[in-house]
Amino acid sequence: MKPILTKRLIAVCLLTLLAVLPILAVLRALFFGEFENWQQLWQTTLPDYLINTSLLMILVGGLSGLIGTYTAWCVTAYDFKGRKTLSWMLILPLSAPAYIIAYLYTDLMEFYGPVQSGLRTLFGWQAGSYWFPNIRNVPGAAIMLSLVLYPYVYLLARAAFTNQSQGQWHAARSLGLTPRQAFWRVALPAARPAIAGGLALVLMETLADFGVADFFAIPTFSTGIFRNWLALGNKDIAMKLASLMLLAVFALLIIESLSRKGRVATHDARAVESELIKVSKAKAAMISALCFLPVIFGFLTPFCVLAYYALIQGDGQGGAQFIQYTLNSLSTAIVVAMIAVIIAIFFAYMYRENESGFLRANIRLATLGYALPGALLVVGLLAPLGTFDQMISKFSRDTLGWSNSLLLTGTTIALIYALTIRFLTVSFNSVNTGFEKVPLSMDHAARSLGAKPIHLIRNIHIPLLRSSVLGGAMLVFIDVLRELPATLILRPFNFETLATRVYWLANDERLREASTAALTIILVGVLPVLVLNLFFVRKRSS
What we know:
Distance between the termini: 39 Å
Shape: globular
CATH superfamily of the largest domain: MetI-like
Structural class: mainly alpha
Order of helices and strands: HHHEHHHHHHHHHEHHHHHHHHHHH
Mean pLDDT: 80
CATH class of the largest domain: Mainly Alpha
Number of domains: 2
Largest sheet: 2 strands, parallel
Strand order of the largest sheet: 1-2
């Protein structure tokens, strides 16, 4: 092995070690620690965590799968007014964090909220004389999460329906099957791997959710980890809960990997204008209305209500203070996006240039972070970081006679470290997809002319990968901007971001003040969503 390759391999291994450090720390809790804590968990809170988390994942998976698959099929197969507009608007709810949606609908539907107050005024109802659903429970949380997570299923299902074989569809129709029968017997089975992949992402996001479950007071693994670590100070139990959550993550990753088996690339896509199914005006209107409902409740209603709240009241903290929250969010997001993209370019280049199974396995391990819930990532990092900080403090005190505070724990360094691990997957997938489109012959030609790897990346790859790099950086930027669990615990003292500002105000029932920060997050979140749709359109046209 060449020395230069050895150095790169060592660099990959070191980066992988830093990325999997929280996983190793959490896995350790499965086999070490006090055994009595397992018994205490089983006898007290663990059954509630298991039941609530499992039920939430089942409900969110079912609702998201139904909404995402139905809307994807409608905009792909049927000819109705507003189809093209809905095809990109159905992605917009992805820009709104689930916890903001939960805060908003709770405020709208509470007893003194505008919905119940309007119904009492309209029908003359009195308190206690009517029944109104309570959304602060597991089914309500499932609806809130589904409103913003169904686009994961929608995007992958739409891509699958678009690229399905034209010949299969015509064969089914020529045998006398109606469009509905052809959907159930041909289109849906062919799209099953894509839909299963989207559902795996939805379930991972549901497992990782903290904001909605915490606001609705639902005991889940995420809220249990935070409660035991912060409120009760029982770190061993928190680590054991995180280890069980990690096993669930591994199971979902296996499901997602299995779901990709059986995907077949077809080049005679059927969803062209001439192949759209013609329907009556009444059915077209019904399809359009049903497809528009997720957009109304998942994006337009929250956006309009938050805009109204921001105009009539907004954040009372003052312009300078709010600007500081925004700058904290933006600076953190920019730094993490830059670091993640640089590492992603290095990983993607190494993945492209080497077929070593060991090296590629290291890169895959290092880019596992997106599957790690924020709560799991935090407890997995705090233990080794705290130990390392104590070792440094002890060495400096005993050797140099210098007493210093902790270097990593409770600093922006720890926050940036955690967020980079969490979202490195996003940047790597985007950059690696771009690398796959650059022919290797171009690399060989440049090397034959004496180009070194750094010059090859800088002068050839990066200009060709500009859209992939910018797309990956933008997606990481937005994910960091709205990340809540990791930021809540790892941020330095008095370091507030837009996400934490929304969290604290909403928990104090001050949603109108939180509307300014929430609206800012959603507005900025729309940008990558539109970029995501643009990439999809380009991929479809190519």
